[in-house]
Design a protein that fits this description.
The complex is a heterodimer of chains A (544) and B (333).
Chain A (H helix, E strand, L loop, with lengths): L1 H14 L2 H22 L8 H7 L1 H32 E2 L3 H7 L8 H7 L3 H18 L2 H13 L1 H27 L1 H10 L4 H30 L2 H6 L4 H11 L3 H26 L17 E2 L2 H37 L2 H35 L2 H10 L7 H19 L7 H27 L1 H9 L4 H12 L1 H17 L2 H6 L7 H10 L3 H29 L1
Parallel strand pairs in A: 1-2
Helix pairs in contact in A: 2-16, 2-17, 2-18, 4-5, 4-9, 4-11, 4-15, 7-8, 9-11, 9-15, 10-11, 11-14, 13-14, 14-18, 15-25, 16-17, 16-19, 16-22, 18-19, 19-22, 20-21, 22-25, 24-25
Chain B lengths: L2 E10 L9 E9 L3 E5 L6 H9 L6 E6 L2 E5 L2 E2 L7 E4 L11 H5 L9 H10 L15 H13 L5 E5 L7 H18 L3 E5 L2 H7 L2 E6 L2 E6 L1 H6 L4 H6 L4 E4 L10 E2 L6 E5 L4 E3 L11 E10 L4 E7 L2 E7 L10 E6 L3
Parallel strand pairs in B: 3-9, 3-10, 7-8, 8-9
Antiparallel strand pairs in B: 1-2, 1-4, 4-5, 5-6, 10-11, 12-14, 13-14, 15-19, 16-17, 16-19, 17-18
The chains are: A mainly alpha (544), B alpha+beta (333).
Chain lengths: 544, 333
């Protein structure tokens, strides 16, 4: 241990220069707010005892139910659709292959508003049951009321899963098509029918991709504020907002945020452990294209229905309902301020994409080019922000920035600068991932070559890395753009006074029970986001 | 006849390609025989193998395995039902399974534990059973792939370029191991190779393919010494194509598709230098030495005679100099 530490120290000193030093500082700067939240885990809070006794278990219970349910249905829909479109052949497969990603353009809170009356409708249907139970006994009434109260779980789960399954779908589809034909053919020549090969070969090989997709679903579920608030599910994020704004208990909210972070870090560690051991990628990918399993008329009908189901719930119904409402209410909503709303959203998303791609490129390059273990470690810490819900990031920022507010005499919180910094913390990983893997694939060896040719790091970055990873840069930028457009909780807390975006306007309108009116900004978000989503899907297709 | 495999006028064209990948190929394979399919890249040899394995569906022709028609008009037996196993070029080991799990993956393998254990021992991979494919060397992976195929006790083993991923040193020993294993287990094997040396060393018979057609079928000796055409002659190593009228007593000749003249293929080692007073100067060709390359166990001499270039081998210590006037003659033994 001692030896490795001193070894690390020597390597660290040896490689410290302007690049690595600034990468280290930048990485830690991005991590500090999150560390600060964890730091407050044990702070005394007057209400904590009360929180612990009353709501903490229900936060935990609701979060777990929601996460498990959403993950289950997302994996079910995502994996089966991915398998169907990548390994089977049936009419309409090519169209379904890309339209299945469209629900990605619908933020969870907007999906919830589109289904805002679903819960109420079901409850209405249940009224006779309540009346019947009242004539019986008090116990029966309790059971029925408990049942009615529990209805919010399946409804929220289905709404969330129907827009979150594309995360699993995209990664599983990529894995299925990357597996290539050879392993499947090998299994066939060893005596297995195509159907049993799915469970024996294809599914086990795709497991890491499915787990990765599922963990994205977990993060998004825990991040959501709009949907859980609407349906009254008390997840941690909902609890943080409640404790903070309704009960005015900042220390209590902080402590909840810290607990949530611990919960997610635990999940990340579990995922790491699950992934260790066997390798799942076949080396030397096979060029031979996959021969799809041709389905008969009955099988094709089933396959089409199976793919249409999540698409209908996740995209067609929400968009359809929103369009109907928009047709009625657009005259009330569309004015000059609405134009400002769109420019605000677009400018904010574009600026954050640019900033985050720049920072991610710099950090990834500094880590790879100088092979500095310290920069590697600080990069890992910096990208942790993606696994932390937006509400927690917002709290972290406020925590760090509030002392400056007083001492500098300017309002750091509630400025666009802080909002951008918060996006940087939350979405750095989104850009870092494609850029880092792009550099790993294309540039590592070439960087060594340019180093040996005595080219400066800057020349290597500008002349070699940037041109070679241009597709990754575009993908990274668009991914951040999509995420920023869809973001709600962070923007809600940190936006400057009187500054509105499409998503905050949607939220504000629904808070005032103006759900039909909220459809206009909601549709705008979906339409703006759908374009980069389709483009990104095309890119993924082309790559395989 | 105990024909294990019979292939009759098998053809396959991919998509919108003009030329067929496999063009009316016919051959037989007997029980216990080792057959090599050789040819350059794009000659259709791998497609032929995949057709037999059932991984591709032929356009026409038929395949009969052990008296049962597995391909033919209206017949197609899916790969999982065919009594043959395929060893893939890059092995196609399941990366998420250990060596043992890979080997016992085959349906038939599970019922033959003892025999498979013996195969593991025979191929010396029984110590690796708990490792994953990425933790073992290329040669070991190759053996695992082979045992996985043999474990299902197929009546025919198909191998796609079995030696192409091995370095030259490993190659020779694996070649011998394979041969021994096939002979010991009485396996009938059909393998594809672009390396004619492998094919000659291992196969009982060789099928030479070009542009999807089987242009020659024969023993390695026949194909080497009596090539059917220019392509076959050059595929199996350096040779000299001499017009038949210069060597009228040659035992074998063919029509050169370039010059359209009848020619004789005489390999570099099939020449002897004749002294001036030699008796059999009738077929001698005289000319001048232009280059001499030292190759260790022999000299490679480039020789020019009337605008024709001949390459022949001489003993390493022969005193042959550039510019020397010589006469050489083919030796047919």
């Amino acid at each position: 241990m001692k030896r490795t530490l001193s070894g690390l120290g020597r390597g660290f000193l040896f490689k410290l220069n302007g690049w690595t030093l600034s990468a280290l500082i930048l990485g830690l700067l991005i991590f500090i707010p999150m560390a600060a939240v964890l730091w407050h885990l044990t702070d005394p809070s007057e209400n904590w005892k009360h929180l612990e006794e009353t709501v903490l278990t229900s936060y935990l219970k609701d979060s777990l139910i929601l996460v498990l349910g959403t993950v289950f249905f997302s994996v079910l829909a995502g994996v089966s659709c991915a398998w169907l479109v990548s390994c089977c052949e049936f009419p309409g497969r090519k169209v379904l292959e890309w339209v299945l990603v469209l629900p990605l353009a619908v933020p969870t809170f907007i999906a919830a508003y589109a289904y805002f009356d679903l819960l109420a409708m079901i409850e209405e249907e249940m009224i006779p049951l309540v009346i019947w139970a009242r004539t019986k006994s008090l116990e029966d009434l309790d059971t029925v009321i408990f049942l009615l109260d529990s209805l919010k779980y399946p409804v929220t789960i289905l709404v969330m899963a129907s827009v979150l399954y594309p995360y699993v779908y995209l990664l599983a589809r990529a894995s299925f098509s990357r597996q290539g034909s050879q392993l499947i053919e090998a299994a066939r020549t060893l005596g297995y029918r195509p159907r049993s090969i799915f469970f024996r070969v294809a599914l086990p090989l795709a497991r890491p991709a499915i787990v990765a997709g599922a963990s994205l679903v977990v993060m998004e579920t825990l991040n959501d504020y709009g949907a859980v608030k609407h349906f009254g599910v008390s997840t941690f994020t909902n609890g943080i907002f409640r404790t903070w704004f309704n009960m005015n208990d900042l220390p209590g909210a902080l402590r909840l945020a810290a607990l949530l972070m611990l919960f997610i870090l635990f999940l990340l560690v579990v995922e790491r452990i699950l992934r260790s051991g066997a390798k799942f990628e076949e080396k030397g990918t096979v060029v031979r294209s996959f021969k799809r399993y041709r389905l008969g008329p009955a099988g094709s009908t089933l396959a089409i229905l199976c793919c249409l189901l999540p698409l209908t719930f996740g995209f067609l119904i929400p968009l359809g309902r929103l369009s109907l409402w928009a047709k009625e209410s657009y005259q009330k909503i569309l004015d000059f301020s609405f134009l400002e709303l769109i420019t605000n959203s677009l400018a904010l998303a574009a600026a954050s994409s640019l900033l985050i791609v720049l920072v991610a490129t710099f950090l990834a390059f500094a880590g790879r080019y100088f092979k500095n273990p310290a920069v590697h470690a600080s990069n890992r810490l910096a990208i942790l922000g993606y696994s932390v819900p937006g509400a927690v990031v917002a709290m972290a920022i406020l925590l760090i920035a509030s002392p400056f507010n007083l001492s500098l005499g300017i309002l750091l919180t509630g400025s666009l600068f802080t909002l951008l910094f918060a996006y940087l913390i939350r979405f750095l990983a989104v850009a870092w991932q494609p850029i880092d893997s792009g550099m790993e694939k294309n540039c590592d060896r070439l960087n060594e070559a340019s180093q040996s040719l005595k080219a400066s790091p800057l020349v290597s970055l500008l002349k070699i890395n940037l041109p070679l990873i241009r597709p990754s840069l575009w993908a990274a930028g668009l991914l951040v753009f999509v995420d920023t457009m869809k973001e709600l909780p962070l923007t809600l807390i940190l936006r400057p006074f009187n500054f509105e975006t499409l998503s905050t306007r949607t939220y504000d309108l629904t808070s005032n029970s103006q759900i039909p009116e909220s459809s206009v900004p909601a549709i705008c978000i979906i339409l703006v986001v759908v374009i980069p989503v389709i483009w990104l899907n095309r890119k993924m297709e082309a790559r395989k | 006849m105990s024909d294990l495999l019979a292939v009759r006028e098998l053809s396959k064209t991919f998509g919108s390609n003009q030329l067929p990948a496999v063009d009316e190929v016919s051959f037989d394979c007997q029980k216990g025989e080792i057959l090599a399919i050789v040819g350059g890249s794009g000659s259709g040899k791998t497609t032929l193998l995949r057709l037999i394995a059932g991984l591709e569906i032929p356009d026409s022709g038929e395949i009969v395995l052990e008296g049962m028609k597995i391909n033919g008009q209206g017949t197609f037996l899916p790969p999982e039902k065919r009594d043959c196993a395929l060893v893939f070029q890059d092995y196609a080991l399941f990366p998420n399974m250990t060596v043992e799990q890979n080997v016992f993956f085959g349906k038939a393998a599970k019922k033959r534990r003892q025999e498979v254990e013996k195969l593991l021992e025979l191929t010396q991979i029984d110590d690796l059973r708990n490792r994953y494919p990425h933790q073992i060397s290329g040669g070991e992976q190759q053996r695992v792939a082979l045992v996985r195929a043999l474990a299902t006790q197929p009546s025919l083993v198909l191998l796609d370029e079995p030696l192409s991923h091995l370095d030259p040193e490993l190659r020779n020993s694996v070649r011998d191991d394979l041969l021994n294993l096939f002979k010991e287990t009485g396996t009938t094997a059909l393998f594809v190779s672009h390396d004619t040396e492998d094919a000659m060393a291992m196969a009982d018979r060789v099928i030479v393919m070009r542009n999807g057609q089987a242009i020659q079928v024969g023993t390695p000796m026949e194909v080497y010494t009596k090539p059917a055409d220019r392509y076959v002659a050059l595929l199996f190593g350096k040779t000299n194509l001499i017009p038949l009228d210069q060597i009228p007593d040659a035992p074998h000749h063919f029509q050169d598709d370039r010059s359209e003249a009848e020619v004789v293929s005489i390999r570099p080692h099939e020449w002897k230098v004749i002294t001036k007073n030699s008796a059999d100067s009738g077929t001698a060709i005289s000319g001048r030495v232009t280059h001499v390359h030292y190759k260790g166990n022999h000299l490679e001499v480039v020789f020019e005679s009337g605008g024709m270039q001949i390459i022949f081998n001489a003993p390493p210590k022969a005193a042959i100099k550039v510019g020397e006037e010589l006469a050489i003659a083919p030796k047919f033994d």
